[in-house]
Predict the structure of Type-4 uracil-DNA glycosylase.
Amino acid sequence: MDSGLDYHTAKALLEWQVELGATEAILDAPVDRFALDPAPAKPAPAAAAPAVAPPAPVAEIDPVEEARKLAAAAPDLEALRTALSGFTHCDLRRGARNLVFADGVAGARVMIIGEAPGRDEDREGRPFVGRAGQLLDRMLAAIGLSRAPEQPSDGVYITNVLPWRPPQNRDPTPQEIAMMVPFMRRHVELAAPDIVVLMGNISCQAGLGQRGITRLRGHWTQAYGAPALPMFHPAYLLRKPHAKREAWADLLSLQARLRDGGQDG
Ligand code: URA
């Protein structure tokens, strides 16, 4: 069949569909569903219009307020996961295979907050399992921390601002981030870490309301009511290996803070 598309456009469209998870053909021939749509109903003549009152205006839902209510009502991490999975106002969930909630040791002294799941995380339903995640594991191991530690005291807890993968790994929009901040605040409250690590710009945008990781990294601050350390994202370090020097300095700063008790001051 001649689709009228050139080879490269057709291939890009096919790859896009595979990326979205449409990996199986269900029928032998394509179906044009727009052609199947019933014709739009003709408006009834004015004389036949029923004499009913116009419908009351539907109250606009504020997704951030809705997120606040749902998150605040969650008494524990499992309930928070359930609340997130029932949150319907963020369109990202529709394109994602899995909700990616968290990994590692809940209750650990360090909570790592990344950006959003990528393809591997979306498949597995766990944060930081792809190449960036493997680098993160090596970085943490260098200061004696792990998401699967032998001693619970060496554990870390890992999550992301966004629990759903954005299409094509695009940056989340400010609205998408704003809807997730109440969940993240509650997540930190319930996990109660001594320290949060904000990995990369999106995490700083959500936790500090600021971007500019090159300027922010390595400077201790407060986020979600806890001492917070912004750091370069491991995906950035994969692209810019020369920045590993600063990342190492930040890891040592994190280690020193943990030795000091992880509190302010
Ligand atoms: N990058 C992130 O920020 N989080 C992940 O889970 C994977 C990659």
